[in-house]
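Reply to dn_fold:

You asked what the input looked like. This is it:
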Amino acid sequence: MTRLFYAHKFLTTVFVLICLGIILCGYLWMQNRYEAIATEKAALVRQISDLRGQVVLRELENKELSSLDRIAKVAPLLGLDYAQVPRKIKKVGDR
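and this is what came back:
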């Protein structure tokens, strides 16, 4: 009887230690996973910020290239001289 009791006690102790080990490993895995996700998020936030900056620069460049002053400067270089630089006119009707 005592032999069975000690075997039962030993198996219970081993089972509890295995459960504690699994819980500890799960906790460490979750902590490492959270750190990886936080690092990935920080990298994506930096990338978004860089892309937004590039969008602003492209919009400024587009506005600069489509300005009438820029067209007036480039027209003679391309052989598109006019007495006066044409103005942008909004189309009103079909005629």
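The chain has a mean pLDDT of 85.
Hope that clears it up.
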